[in-house]
């Protein structure tokens, strides 16, 4: 008798899904019905009749199964195929149908990719209504995920080489006067070189010179065409791309598994997400190496989904620009967006040299009020800026810090170039951040915004995309974010409670900046100035 083999049973024991689990899945399917995503799926179903051959897979069940897989597994195509064969939950969702990985791949390419914006919008709105999620405050943050590209296969935008070759080419064209009224181009085009080559025969050059000139211009033409192709792939807003994924950009990642933190370039995409009460309600996939210019697009996508802008917006210092502050002001959104020098003001280690007081006047670290002046011998470097002059610097203890970037310290004044709108909007954001509401929002931002990325990267080990190309990568991150929201929804089904986030105590006082030490700042300023002007 075998110890590991079992005896043959006359009747198979049927395995059924747990009742509680089936009830949660039924609620999830009901939510998909309520969201009306069937309208998006039904557009791609030609007919329901079976005319022989392999039976058609039910697209509605397959869509629900795909979302469920992105919520509770690593969601590779072959893994979803195995789950549909052996996991009771997926067998329950598919009604014992077993799609192959190629069928799932075709379904994602055919339906989810083109319909991703509408699918995300409908499902997220339905989840927010079901869980009673407040969209009053949105927390925006970004991170970089590695692309599915090979190591060191990136190509830099060849602007410098293009410019150098253009000088040589223009010099050659002008030397033989191949083009009339020719102007030296910084980046000469292949079309210009082609015109020049077509005029060589008209110049009656010797056969040897004509041959050499033709050969030189043809070689330049081939190189310029190569440069133009690379520049076109890069586009106007980035300087690199990868050979195996031309939409991926070379970026430094926080976790660098090759040789330390941020020391190597990797193919990556920049992902921006807006979160309300722990639920991702807006997302954006870009090629930007910084977060600064993606802020408005995230809010616009929020508006496209819900039809209105949120009342409050919280974000870190990577989004603190004049353009972003103006956008919030124009749309009546309360700003809790930090600016880049805020950390120095909070700690008192590197504070701003001046600020706006309660009366709207410019006050320096020594509490001296500055005045707007006009200078005849100096032009502003920034648009819509003015010059602010502070007197009495020679008797001020903060003078070495305020003049740390100046060579001459003999003047009894200091002039700053200021964009008034930017200073006023930063001060409004600062007042909001220091208030009781601002303290609560700042704490919750670190919990909610960072929590989404932490869960994706640590709990579900999603650190690298499996698909290539901007369209496919955008759809993949959309599915992962929907899966994250569905996990929150199932937790809500179990406990009937939303996630608890920090609420400010009733006796909490508004925060105040630490008073800067003149002695420490003067020492830092002198050391920094000596390092800069040590000669």
From TrEMBL:
Q: Which Pfam families match?
A: DDE_Tnp_1_6 (PF13751), DUF772 (PF05598)
Domain Transposase DDE: where?
Answer: 380-489
- Coiled-coil stretches: none
Q: Which InterPro entries match?
A: Tnp_DDE_dom, Transposase_InsH_N
Q: Tell me where in this chain the Transposase InsH N-terminal domain is found.
A: 21-109
- Residue ranges annotated as compositionally biased, kind Basic residues, are 515-535
Segments for region (Disordered):
503-535
This protein is called what? Transposase
């Amino acid at each position: 008798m075998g110890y590991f083999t079992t005896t043959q049973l006359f009747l198979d024991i049927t395995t059924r899904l747990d009742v509680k689990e089936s009830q949660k899945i039924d609620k999830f399917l009901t939510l998909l019905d309520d969201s009306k995503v069937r309208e998006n799926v039904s557009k791609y179903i030609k007919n329901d009749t079976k005319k022989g051959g392999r039976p058609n897979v039910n697209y509605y069940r397959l869509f629900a199964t795909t979302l469920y897989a992105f919520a509770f597994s690593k969601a590779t195509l072959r893994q979803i195929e195995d789950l549909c064969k052996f996991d009771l939950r997926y067998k329950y969702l598919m009604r014992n149908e077993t799609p192959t990985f190629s069928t799932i791949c075709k379904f994602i390419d055919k339906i989810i990719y083109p319909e991703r914006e509408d699918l995300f919008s409908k499902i997220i709105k339905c989840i927010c209504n079901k869980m009673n999620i407040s969209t009053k405050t949105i927390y925006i943050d970004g991170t970089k995920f590695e692309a599915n590209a090979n190591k060191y296969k990136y190509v830099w935008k060849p602007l410098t080489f293009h410019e150098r070759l253009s000088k040589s080419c223009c010099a050659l064209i002008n030397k033989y006067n191949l083009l009339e009224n020719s102007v030296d181009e910084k980046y000469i085009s292949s079309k210009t070189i082609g015109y020049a080559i077509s005029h060589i025969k008209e110049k009656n050059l010797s056969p040897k010179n004509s041959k050499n000139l033709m050969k030189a211009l043809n070689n330049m033409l081939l190189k310029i065409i190569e440069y133009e192709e690379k520049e076109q792939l890069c586009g106007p807003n980035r300087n690199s791309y990868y050979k195996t994924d031309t939409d991926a950009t070379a970026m430094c990642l926080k976790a660098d598994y090759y040789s330390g933190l941020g020391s190597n370039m990797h193919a990556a995409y920049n992902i921006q997400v807006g979160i309300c009460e722990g639920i991702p309600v807006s997302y954006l996939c870009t090629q930007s190496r910084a977060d600064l210019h993606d802020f408005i697009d995230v809010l616009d996508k929020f508006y496209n989904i819900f039809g209105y802008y949120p009342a409050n917006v919280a974000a870190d210092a990577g989004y603190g620009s004049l353009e972003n502050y103006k956008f919030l002001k124009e749309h009546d959104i309360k700003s809790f967006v930090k600016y880049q020098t805020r950390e120095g003001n909070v700690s008192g280690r590197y504070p701003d040299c001046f600020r706006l007081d309660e009366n709207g006047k410019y006050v320096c670290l020594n509490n001296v009020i500055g005045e707007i002046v006009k200078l005849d011998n100096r032009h502003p470097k920034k648009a819509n800026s003015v010059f602010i002059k502070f007197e009495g610097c020679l008797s001020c203890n903060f003078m070495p810090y305020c003049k740390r970037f100046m060579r001459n310290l003999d003047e009894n004044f200091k002039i700053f170039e200021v964009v008034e709108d930017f200073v006023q909007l930063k001060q409004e954001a600062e007042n909001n951040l220091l208030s009781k509401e601002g303290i609560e929002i700042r704490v919750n931002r670190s919990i909610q915004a960072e929590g989404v990325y932490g869960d994706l990267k640590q709990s579900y080990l999603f650190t690298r995309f499996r698909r290539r190309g901007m369209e496919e990568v955008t759809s993949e991150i959309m599915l992962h974010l929907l899966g994250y929201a569905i996990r929150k929804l199932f937790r809500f089904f179990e406990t009937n409670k939303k996630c608890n986030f920090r609420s400010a105590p009733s006796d909490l006082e508004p925060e105040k900046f630490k008073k800067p030490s003149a002695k420490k700042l003067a020492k830092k300023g002198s050391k920094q100035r000596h390092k800069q002007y040590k000669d």
